[in-house]
Amino acid sequence: MELSEKEWVPAPEIKNGTNFDYFFVLERGCMRTKSILEEITKLQEVTAILRGENGCPWDKEQDHQTLVPYLIEESQEVIEAILKKDDDLLKEELGDLLFQVVFHARLAEERRSFDLGDIAKRVSDKLIFRHPHVFKPEELTLSTSQEVLENWEKIKDKEKRIQKIHLSSQTFQKISLPF
Q1: MF terms per GO, please (predicted)?
Q2: Chain centroid to CA 145: how far?
Q3: What range does the domain containing 82 cover?
Q4: Is 12 within a domain?
Q5: What is the C-alpha to C-alpha distance for residues 10 and 22, in angstroms, rounded to an integer?
Q6: What is the C-alpha separation between 26 and 38, in angstroms, rounded?
Q7: What are phi and psi for residue 103, nearest 5 degrees?
Q8: Which pTM does this prediction carry?
Q9: What is the pLDDT of residues 47-98, one digit of tens each?
Q10: 60 in a structural domain
Q11: Apex 148 CA angle, 125 and 123, nearest 5
Q12: Strands (E), 18-164
């Protein structure tokens, strides 16, 4: 199979002897998985340096609560970029939001609570659990969005630990969403 400069290729079609279950972005014929992991690792390292002994005084003072306004602001900026249909701006704002996730993961890692890998595992496991029609199609077939939504409600009812985020009225007033 001849690959264009960039295209999505189902993993079984990759003819390099590896056996993957999911899709990978291929660029100029090689997997970008390594470079993506390298960039995520670099972001983690930059964050650790910012929080480290010789890091930034402001970054070292932050905790989960002090970062809430920035998390809200960055989320809002992502929404604005989406509504503007500006991919370059969206890339920038998603980067800022990703930094928030990495920063919060770093704070938790410093407390020896969890790390970015734990976050990724938790969300991957949750997505797989909530999409049995994709990951276990032999057990469940759903053909329409409506069927997926109905099954989603059943799954949510089964989940034992549903936590609701209770924002204080002060924090909530700072949110000014464009829709």
Answers
A1: nucleoside triphosphate diphosphatase activity
A2: 23
A3: 32-173
A4: no
A5: 7
A6: 16
A7: -65, -50
A8: 0.71
A9: 999 999 999 999 999 999 999 999 999 999 999 999 999 999 999 999 999 9
A10: yes
A11: 15
A12: 24-27, 30-31
